[in-house]
Amino acid sequence: MKLIDLHMHSTCSDGTDTPTELVRLALEKNLVAMAVTDHDTVAGVAEAMEAAKGKPIEVIPGVEISCEYVIPPSAGNPSRKKEIHILGYNMDIENKPLLDALTFAREERDNRNKRMCENFYNAGYTMITYENLLERFGNVTIARPHFARLLMEGGVVPSISAAFEKGQLLSDTSPLYVHRTYLTPEQGIKAILGAGGKPVLAHPMIYKMSVSEIHRMLGELVGFGIQGVEALYSRNKGTDEAFVRKLAKEFGLFITGGTDYHGKNKPDLEIGWGEGDLRIPVMLLDNIR
Fold first, then answer.
1. Mind listing the domains of the chain with CATH numbers?
2. Verdict on whether the full-model pTM lies above 0.90
């Protein structure tokens, strides 16, 4: 069976492999297609497409846009904010409104990063400075996994994932964490559609929402123009995939799949191979063309 991977990250965001290296790794796994979906940037797409020229693999232009969805109050519970991700495929990576939206997202992330650096430094974690992040990782989309790597290298946490556990330094409940301004789901979806792309809700089961909340969110996203949902995903458990497939059918959405490969930042994942013997068949590629 021919296989693909439609969700991975490069050094242009919080992955540890360059776009060229991602292509090489995908070829080693005999994948026939891949999508580089960096957070809030398409900076790595052109390099990956160039690296794939003349080789038996297709690179799909992609992006993963961070948005903030507001879960309405219910059953006496107050409303709450949830970061969700919208994948975009096959869009024009030179489309100005799309690039403007991504620039806004990165600038807001960068402003948050600077304030978090101050918090960490003042709390005694002196290895965390904005200057150190830039020196260590270069001109990329700095995200919390970059903070986690410095903390791990400094012996503060045993692993990158440990820094994100509930109550830990980089969790969203940490006193050092700083909330940032996000694009709304509607803005993210419209930016992708406006660039001729296919918007897809990424990994819906990791948001830890109730069934009714997921249904309500998908209903809203469909109204904004979402076209697909990521049903095959490396962190799915038990009946998660079957549930998302059912949601896709209910809301008239196509399905996609990907590993969410980040290189050394998620060392248990490989391109094209995920937990539970995850494999993404080439037939799903037709959904995003």
1. 3-288 (3.20.20.140)
2. yes
